[in-house]
Amino acid sequence: MISRSLLLLFLATTIPIVCFPGPSVAFILTNSVQKGRALGLACVLGVEIGYLVHVFGAVVGVSAVIAASAQLFTIVKLAGAAWLLWLAWKAFRSRKEGTLAQAGEGARGDLRPLAAFRSGLLVGALNPKTAVFFLAFLPQFVSADAGPVPVQLLIFGLLFIALASIPDTLWALAGGFLRTLTPRLRLRSLDRAAGVVYCVLAAFAITTTARA
What we know:
Blueprint: H1 4-19, H2 23-35, H3 37-60, H4 62-68, H5 70-93, H6 100-105, H7 107-110, H8 113-125, H9 128-137, H10 149-181, H11 187-207
Helix pairs in contact: 1-10, 2-3, 2-8, 2-10, 2-11, 3-8, 3-9, 3-10, 4-5, 4-9, 5-11
């Protein structure tokens, strides 16, 4: 059984990490400001569930294979970057007219939380640095006296995701609040800004190395 002291150490180490904004936060915040709080929260749910891929990967050793093989790691990197670039392409091609206030008048009928969830799912699952992070981070808290190693890794991984969901949710709510404060922002300007963010995230994914 995992000791209380080890759990406290894990919490003390994890909380600062999850509170530090990263690529997923940029994705969540951008969508919340651009499309509203509901879609931002759907993105959060997708991102956190996407992280499960890396947790299970660490448990079964797939992440170790990715970290050890430059070719496999490159494939994962390019897949994640391709998805982000596709989001950027959609944002740059957007021909939306009007302002946030005007969009809000019919926003309820335009919401597509399932699509936002799928986008967040892919952003969370296709981030190779997350795979390497879980591979390097979770084993640090495994104890030979605390039971089966896979079970310990799973517990720590799920706990990490639960902790990460709290600040991510707050970022989504903050984005929705910013949306209400800036009702005169033009939708096309937001789309262009979102496209830039996605391009930056794609570049971040491409330049990530297996030893990062």
